[in-house]
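Tokens for chain A. Residues wanted.
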């Protein structure tokens, strides 16, 4: 079989999603469903809660300005330990336990994710002075050739969100939400899956029957204006919507704890999660 012809799903797994047993098992079960249905899969994960917990255990205080993490050199060591040493190994093991040949790595491995240091910038809600985010980078390129090579070997890349400077080995802390979009765009993914504890977009979070099964990009933007999509989900959806015009066919918001959620949105069944497409 020509491996390049298989559909590709890029999955974003937040560190918060991995805190519960049902969610952890759900991630591996749902990815297994995609593999069994002859999909290729790339997984990108963060590890914010795990980083915060390790910092606290070490007597360090997470430093955030307007909700954005400031990463000192000592903070970066903890980030590396948490997302590479804890989350990446645990997630790779979960998948291997399900007979999925996961390949644990990070963005610096083989320079999968190229980044440059984020310049100081003024941040909304943080005053008039430019903020230096420290060892934080912005993604400039994705090594799609290497990722495709891993996929062709029938591996599932499980990538911890670090970036590396193009002409050195300098490593940066990078944002998983923006990075997963860059990967989906570079790989021309058929499906971008954003996993959340809520598992879909709801008109009323307290009423499961108000789940929105499918919207197009224009309707999704209106849901932001109307306050249906709110809080931390707004930047995730806004960033993701940008790839629909660049060849990525569909975006889905799903809950990994829901059995069959990934394959359901992949098949456009409408029974779980929320599917977003470009529309007409």
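Reply:
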């Amino acid at each position: 079989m020509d491996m390049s012809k298989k559909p590709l799903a890029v999955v974003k797994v937040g560190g918060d999603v991995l805190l519960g047993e049902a969610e952890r098992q759900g991630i591996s079960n749902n990815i297994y469903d995609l593999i069994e249905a002859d999909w290729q899969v790339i997984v990108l994960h963060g590890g914010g809660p795990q980083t915060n917990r390790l910092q606290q255990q070490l007597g360090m205080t997470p430093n955030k300005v307007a909700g954005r993490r400031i990463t000192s050199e000592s903070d970066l060591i903890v980030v590396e330990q948490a997302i590479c040493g804890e989350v990446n190994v645990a997630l790779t093991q979960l998948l291997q336990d399900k007979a999925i040949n996961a390949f644990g790595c990070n963005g610096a491995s083989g320079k999968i994710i190229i980044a440059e240091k984020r310049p100081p910038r003024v941040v909304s809600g943080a005053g008039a002075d430019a903020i230096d985010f420290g060892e934080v980078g912005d993604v400039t390129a994705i090594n799609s050739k290497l990722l495709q090579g891993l996929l062709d070997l029938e591996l599932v890349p499980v990538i911890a969100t670090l970036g590396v400077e193009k002409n050195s080995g300098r490593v940066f802390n990078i944002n998983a939400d923006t990075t997963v979009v860059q990967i989906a765009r570079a790989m021309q993914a058929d499906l971008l899956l954003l996993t959340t504890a809520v598992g879909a977009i709801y008109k009323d979070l307290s009423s499961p029957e108000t789940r929105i099964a499918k919207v197009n990009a224009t309707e999704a933007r209106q849901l932001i204006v109307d306050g249906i999509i709110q809080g931390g989900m707004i930047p995730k959806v806004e960033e993701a919507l940008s790839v629909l015009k660049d060849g990525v066919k569909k975006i889905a918001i799903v809950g990994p704890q829901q059995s069959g959620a990934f394959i359901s949105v992949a098949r456009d069944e409408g029974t779980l999660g929320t599917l977003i497409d470009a529309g007409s």
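The mean pLDDT is 91. The first strand starts at residue 8 and ends at 13.
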